[in-house]
Automatic annotation (TrEMBL):
<comment type="function">
    <text>Part of the tripartite ATP-independent periplasmic (TRAP) transport system.</text>
</comment>
<dbReference type="Pfam" id="PF06808">
    <property type="entry name" value="DctM"/>
</dbReference>
<feature type="transmembrane region" description="Helical">
    <location>
        <begin position="429"/>
        <end position="446"/>
    </location>
</feature>
<feature type="transmembrane region" description="Helical">
    <location>
        <begin position="34"/>
        <end position="55"/>
    </location>
</feature>
<feature type="transmembrane region" description="Helical">
    <location>
        <begin position="61"/>
        <end position="81"/>
    </location>
</feature>
<feature type="domain" description="TRAP C4-dicarboxylate transport system permease DctM subunit">
    <location>
        <begin position="130"/>
        <end position="404"/>
    </location>
</feature>
<keyword id="KW-0472">Membrane</keyword>
<protein>
    <submittedName>
        <fullName>TRAP transporter, 4TM/12TM fusion protein</fullName>
    </submittedName>
</protein>
<keyword id="KW-0997">Cell inner membrane</keyword>
<dbReference type="InterPro" id="IPR010656">
    <property type="entry name" value="DctM"/>
</dbReference>
<feature type="transmembrane region" description="Helical">
    <location>
        <begin position="190"/>
        <end position="209"/>
    </location>
</feature>
<dbReference type="GO" id="GO:0005886">
    <property type="term" value="C:plasma membrane"/>
</dbReference>
<feature type="transmembrane region" description="Helical">
    <location>
        <begin position="88"/>
        <end position="106"/>
    </location>
</feature>
<keyword id="KW-0812">Transmembrane</keyword>
<feature type="transmembrane region" description="Helical">
    <location>
        <begin position="589"/>
        <end position="611"/>
    </location>
</feature>
<feature type="domain" description="TRAP C4-dicarboxylate transport system permease DctM subunit">
    <location>
        <begin position="430"/>
        <end position="612"/>
    </location>
</feature>
<feature type="transmembrane region" description="Helical">
    <location>
        <begin position="496"/>
        <end position="519"/>
    </location>
</feature>
Length: 702
């Protein structure tokens, strides 16, 4: 977190860590140019291997980790070192890490041939790789995650000396290092595979769409739809952040982009600073669960479960809508409680005019959704979506130089025909690259084209920088996965949950929720999900919870942890914009997200909410009837929890009314005889009572 100074003042920038990302730019002078060039090289490597897939997976993972370490130490040196010697040391250490990753490529065949029988050089390189990953993560994110992973390494080395059932059979130094640094269940496991393929590509996709003007489109549409309603600015924040989540998948990124506009707007129209920032933090964190471009966890989940990414997207749709509906409802109630009005019609743009003017920006996103649901791989869909986005950006810059709209229409129609011609037998990478290459050449000789090419180049470098925190987290958490796969320690924790769940599934879910939130207060969402899913999801599956549901349960509470003090990453990101204490923002965000905390419990007991079989109501209502009933019940529960948290419906709620609403919500979440009936009856009673109170309040106020 930036505490003092500026990015262009060497030696005057003080950071506690870079968990929220690096400051603007790449550092001072020539060192900044070096980082910028390496960032472009990193992004280019990722694009080339995604397009042509000419390298073995293990090599791609190794080079990816090498680039991560190189840029991590180099950029940290650029932004924190007080002298050129310090910056040179950072780049030297990073270069050693890059060589450790490159080792996987240079000796790929030899490493396969001597698998299980490492040389002294193999052990030295593997050990050095682990040290650099741990130190780089510590400098990026602080001590919490390295300490947790380090404790797992210690258990791996010395766990044989613990009493049963915590002990294991013991493993030698060479076994541990080989498993960690050269297999596919350690540093180069599923998380880093996903980071090296899907995540990087979708970071680029989101970055280019933002560059094309998607944020402005989202903002204008949100303002046009909700700006004039009661408490409109806060509803704009929720809706815009939800739309932003469809292309970003990063909560903190949403806060610092959309929040720059929405938080001051909410404050201007009467919302408290902490509440305004809490609304943006809550809505922005939902970006990680909003299809189609969900957070990195969704890709890891798909790989872990061995299902198509589209399966994860379909399962996440209704819960994501419910999450944003809960945030929308909370700000509506808060506005009613404090009499906050919307914006004047003259102050807001027309949503229709915004869509008519920039509808074409939605084409890459629409193509992405179509391909994901048609069964194309995320890598292929993301590549095509990225190519379409680049074509739109370059095409728009080319048409700026045309003197009439007729010429612009001819250009776009011609470009569409060319794309159709090269894709009549399916999209192949060489024709796609050829079209983009032709647009690049034309842009280079047209007015404004060179500036657009420079902006695209900047997006490549910025995307590489943005990928560092996610990538390093994916690398270090591989140490936990490696320890669990070799020692089998996960079965111990799983046994506890199964034992607890045999008496009460609800208590097993609560234990899993607490574990996820506890982990998430100190580490990012990705490792939180990976650890919780590895420990608890298999146990929940044995208790009858569908595997995808148990994984999504762990995922949701990892996100909720980012809203929960003392860490509350989203609140920390919103604090400088709102000029408010991060802890106050964190507590407000938890209150706003209260309804979101219960959604996972709803979809465990009603799996039809995630379009999964096994819902108890399906036998009576049919599958889609069960989906409709579960959605309706979840909406009612969300409405009740919102009333409890805000203390308002038609008028302010008394303590007894809040207690009644809370009891009704718990009944709708429960799984006991007549629980739904009791919940709906109590809901009708409290709503009618509030409606009856409203005229009296109005008369008294008059």
């Amino acid at each position: 977190m930036l505490q003092a100074g500026g990015a262009d003042e060497p030696g005057k920038v003080k950071f506690d860590n870079f968990e929220h990302g690096f400051p603007e730019g790449f550092g001072p002078g020539g060192w900044g140019h070096l980082a910028y060039a390496i960032g472009i090289a990193f992004a280019t490597f990722q694009l080339v291997v995604a397009a042509w897939n000419f390298l073995p997976s293990q090599v791609v993972r190794g080079v990816h980790v090498g680039f991560l370490i190189l840029m991590t130490f180099g950029l940290i040196g650029n932004f924190t070192a007080k002298s050129n010697a310090g910056r040179a040391a950072g780049w030297l250490i990073g270069s050693i890490g890059f060589l450790c990753g490159l080792y996987q490529w240079i000796f790929y065949a030899d490493l396969i041939a001597r698998d299980g029988d490492p040389t002294q050089l193999d052990l030295a390189v593997g050990t050095l790789l682990g040290i650099l990953i741990f130190e780089g993560t510590r400098r990026l994110m602080g001590l919490a995650l390295p300490l947790m992973c380090g404790s797992c390494i210690l258990y791996w080395f010395f766990g044989q000396y613990l009493p049963a059932p915590f002990n294991h059979r013991g493993y030698g130094f060479d076994q541990i290092i080989t498993h960690l640094s050269y297999g596919t269940e350690g540093f180069y496991g599923v998380p880093i595979y996903v980071s090296a393929t899907y995540i990087f590509l979708f970071i680029l996709f989101g970055s280019f769409l933002e560059r094309a003007g998607m944020i402005q489109l989202f903002t204008d549409v949100s303002l046009g739809l909700f700006g004039s309603t009661r408490g409109g600015p806060a509803k704009v924040a929720v809706f815009a952040s939800g739309m932003m989540g469809t292309i970003s998948g990063s909560g903190v990124a949403n806060v610092v982009t959309v929040g720059q506009f929405t938080i001051p707007l909410m404050i201007k129209f009467g919302y408290r600073r902490a509440f305004a920032a809490g609304v943006e933090a809550t809505a922005s964190m939902g970006g990680q669960i909003m299809p189609p471009v969900m957070g990195a966890v969704a890709f890891i989940m798909a790989e872990t479960l061995g299902v198509d990414y589209s399966v994860i997207v379909k399962a996440a749709v209704i819960p994501a809508i419910l999450y944003f509906a809960s945030a929308f409802w909370m700000v509506h109630l808060e506005a009613g409680k404090h009499g906050l009005v919307g914006m004047k019609r003259a102050e807001i743009p027309s949503a229709w005019k915004a869509l008519v003017a920039r509808w074409y920006l939605a084409l890459p996103l629409a193509a992405l959704v179509y391909m994901l649901f048609e069964g194309f791989t995320p890598l292929y869909a993301g590549s095509v979506g990225l190519a379409l986005t680049v074509a739109l950006i370059l095409g728009a810059s080319i048409t700026l130089g045309f003197s009439s709209n007729a010429l612009r229409y001819v250009f776009w129609i011609g470009l569409a025909l060319v794309v159709a011609a090269v894709s009549h037998n399916g999209l192949e990478i060489i024709p796609v690259v050829s079209v983009v290459g032709a647009l690049v050449l034309i842009s280079a000789i047209t007015r404004g084209g060179r500036a657009t090419l420079a902006a695209c180049r900047d997006s490549l470098a910025d995307s590489a920088k943005s990928a560092l925190t996610v990538g390093m987290a994916c690398a270090i958490v591989g140490s936990i996965i490696g320890m669990m796969t070799q020692t089998g320690v996960g079965t111990i924790f799983g046994g506890w949950i199964i034992g607890l769940g045999a008496k009460s599934l609800f208590m097993a879910l609560v234990m899993t929720m607490l574990l996820s939130i506890l982990l998430g207060t100190g580490i990012p969402t990705i490792p939180t999900y990976i650890i919780t899913a590895a420990l608890a999801a298999p146990a929940l599956a044995k208790l009858g919870v569908a595997l995808i549901v148990s994984h999504m349960f762990a995922f949701y509470y990892g996100i909720m942890a980012d809203l929960s003090p003392p860490v509350a990453l989203a609140a920390l990101a919103a604090a400088p914009i709102a000029k408010e204490n991060p802890n106050k923002i964190g507590w407000e965000a938890m209150r706003i997200a209260l309804a979101g905390y219960v959604i996972p419990f709803v979809f465990v007991y009603s799996p039809s909410l995630m379009l999964q079989p096994g819902d108890p109501m399906a036998a009576q209502l049919g599958f889609y009837g069960a989906v409709a009933f579960a959605t309706f019940k979840a909406l009612v529960a969300i409405a009740l929890f919102g009333m409890v948290a805000i203390g308002f419906l038609f008028t302010r709620l008394t303590l007894l009314e809040r207690a009644t609403a809370f009891a009704a919500a718990l009944c709708l979440l429960g799984d006991f005889l007549f629980s739904d009936t009791a919940g709906f009856l109590l809901t009708v009673a409290i709503v009618l009572w509030q409606w009856r109170q409203r005229p009296r309040t109005a008369v008294a106020a008059a």
